[in-house]
Amino acid sequence: MLVHPQFDPVALAIGPLAVRWYGLMYLLAFLQFWFLGRRRAQASTGQAKPWSVEELDDLLFWGAIGVVLGGRLGQVLFYEPGYYFSHPLEIVAVWKGGMSFHGGFLGVLAAFTLFARKTGRSWFQVADFVAPLVPLGLFFGRIGNFINGELWGRPADPSLPWAMVFPQVDGLPRHPSQLYEAGLEGLVLFAVLWLYSATPRPAGRVSGLFLVGYGLARFVGEFFRTPDDGIFGLSTTVSMGQWLSLPMIAAGLWLLLRRMPGTARNAAS
Predict the structure, then answer these.
(1) Which pLDDT value is given to residue 187?
(2) Contact yes or no for 175/156 (Cβ under 8 A)
(3) Residues of each annotated binding site
(4) What is the mean pLDDT of residues 39-58?
(5) What is the chain's mean pLDDT, rounded?
(6) What is the largest CA-CA distance in the chain?
(7) How big is the chain by its Cα radius of gyration, in Å?
């Protein structure tokens, strides 16, 4: 049985300036987006409308705003409205953690819409380009959750070799659910999407696979994670995260299964 290391949330302090691990994980997420995005942009050279580095920079800027604003508002509205409405100044304290993926996802959708209008690209061109760049960012986010010792797992069988005690919670062995989600939502989903998107696909297919893949990974991961209260109240049967994942799975299946008039003509760029 393991014990959570109880990391100091501050990675580096220089005088009054404190750099937190959670912020560093977001920085790594944005850096990998830019690095892998350049590779995808270079691979689009032979397409009808290739991606430029300048477009990638703009997309990262808009996406970062959507992730942070949407993620925080999602946490406030979906999971802890009572707390944040009682402590409104805490809403802006994003360095303390507390970001909702589903809220960040909605924020990114809004950013995609603005970017698509600005550049004259179709919405699915943008979404299909970005989808394979997201999972490694999720991986770093979950590692940040683990370092912060938040979003801990449900009680586990003490004989489980990797069962972990989170001293800030109690003395029970628990599933390190943050690491489960880092593996499923991050590494596994990245490998699947990167390989799938290496071949031109009809518009919306890569986005659809992302929605289904993330939705299923999150739905499974929630069985090992201590459920959040959410706006529907605390439920250990179907958690708030699972409720929010169901529409993603449904939308993704529709995108994957819908009939297309042709493949080459509709291939995502």
Answers:
(1) 98
(2) yes
(3) 142
(4) 88
(5) 89
(6) 61
(7) 19
Could you tell me how far CA 239 lies from the centroid of its own chain? 17
Q: Is residue 20 within a helix (H) or strand (E), and if so which, with residue range? A: strand 17-20
Calpha distance 135→218 (Å, rounded)? 12
- Confidence category of residue 198, pLDDT binned at 50, 70, 90: very high
Residues 10 and 18: beta-carbon distance below 8 Å:
yes
CA gap 179, 108 in Å, rounded: 24
- For the record, the structure tokens of 51 come out as 């991606």
Distances (CA, A) of 171 to 143, 153, 223: 22, 13, 20
Measured between alpha carbons, how far is 255 from 121 in angstroms, rounded to an integer? 19
Q: Helix or strand or coil: residue 21?
A: helix
Single-letter amino acid, residue 121 = R
CB atoms within 10 A of CB 213: 23
> Which residues pair with residue 174 across a beta bridge?
155, 164
Alpha helices per DSSP H over 7-52: 21-43
Residue type, 168: Q
Q: What does the alpha-carbon distance between residue 200 and residue 174 come to, in Å, rounded to a whole number? A: 42
pLDDT tens for residues 6-15?
999 899 888 8
* Residue carrying structure tokens 């507390």: 98
Please give the structure tokens belonging to residue 237.
Answer: 């049967």
Which residues make beta-bridge pairs with 173?
165
Tell me the one-letter amino acid at 186.
Answer: G
Question: Contact, 215 vs 61, CB < 8 A?
Answer: no
